[in-house]
């Protein structure tokens, strides 16, 4: 028989009650323990060959500040095109840039240069 600490026993019981396979986030939520306490107990249980920890990598994508602007206002190409359409379809490029509120940094990008 293996000696278990109170937290280890509680975590083992919780795992059983949750169906035997659960994410670490769910364990933290259901156990009302800190993430470090849950991980420490889980690692101890794994060392005692009572559980197996599976690590599944995942990808997280975050918008940059420029990406946030593009997501909210539209891509420079689309903004320029919309400005040209709103101004009647034929207009000086300088006026279209002003209407689209493009900074000089994005003027060439909007033209595909």
Write the layout of secondary structure elements.
Layout: H1 6-17, H2 24-31, H3 35-47, H4 65-73, H5 76-86, H6 93-100, H7 104-111
Helix pairs in contact: 1-3, 5-6, 5-7
Task: Quickly list its features.
113 residues, 2 domains, 61% helix, mainly alpha, 0% strand
Walk me through this protein's architecture.
There is one protein chain. α1 (6-17) crosses α3 (35-47), α5 packs across α6 and α5 (76-86) crosses α7 (104-111). By secondary structure, the protein is an all-alpha fold. It has helices at residues 6-17, 24-31, 35-47, 65-73, 76-86, 93-100, 104-111. The longest helix is centred in the middle third of the chain and has 13 residues, at 35-47. The protein has two domains: 6-47; 65-111, no CATH class.
Summarize the structure.
This protein is mainly α and 113 residues long. The protein is built from seven helices and no strands. It has two domains: 6-47; 65-111, no CATH class.
Point out poorly predicted stretches: none
Radius of gyration: 28 Å
SSE pattern, N- to C-terminal:
HHHHHHH
Distance between the termini: 72 Å
Q: How many helices?
A: 7
Specify the overall morphology. rod-shaped
The proportion of residues forming helix, as a percent range, comes to 55-70%
The main β sheet shows up as:
none
The number of strands is 0
Mean of residue pLDDT values = 91
Structural class: mainly alpha
- How many domains make up the coordinates? 2
Bin the strand percentage: under 5%
